[in-house]
Amino acid sequence: MLRWLVIALTLTGCRPRAASGPQQDSPPLATLAGVACIRQQEGCILCVARHTPAEVEERLRRLCNPKKTTECTEFCTTLAAECATPWRSGPNCLAQSEDEFRRQQFWLEAADRPSAELVGRVLDAESKKLDGARVELADGPTVVAEATTGKDGGFRIPLRVGSYTMRVSRSGYATQLETVRLLADKAPPFHVLRMSPEERISGHVLDGSGAPVAGVTVLAVRVTADPLSVAEAQTGADGAFTLRGLDAHRYALRVLAFGYRAVETPRVQAPATRVLWHLERTHIVRGLVTTTDGTPQAQAKILILATGGGAESPVSAWTSGADGRYAIDGLSPGSYLMWAQKNDRATYPPMRVTLEAEDLEPLDVGLTIDHEGALVTGYVVDPDGRPLGGLHVDLSPRWPLALPIALGAETGRDGKFSVDGLTPGRYEILVRQGPRPLPLLEGPRDVEVPIEEGEEVDLDGKVKVRPKLD
Question: pTM of this prediction?
Answer without folding.
Answer: 0.77
